[in-house]
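Researcher: Please translate sequence to structure tokens.
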Amino acid sequence: MAAAVTSTIAEALKAVRKRMSELVVNAGRSSENVRLVAVSKTKPKEMIMEAYDADQRHFGENYVQDFVEKAPHLPLDIKWHFIGHLQSNKVKE
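Model: Translation complete:
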């Protein structure tokens, strides 16, 4: 089962990257100005690692508490992005 999920994540990322590349060319833009941020909210650490193993480095989290729980168990070179609204009571975290 895990191999099937890994394959699915890797294949999905490959398809998204291909489509992004096509759109960048069509728009006449440089691919250096476009970034794929994989939304990892609600996803377990294992799925994030599968995407990481498929060369994904930018991930988006919605909740500070999920980031705080996941990040220490994942590679240090992941670039984290917060998506959505940050609650003021979570800013101090």
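Researcher: Any highlights?
Model: DSSP finds three helices and three strands in the chain.
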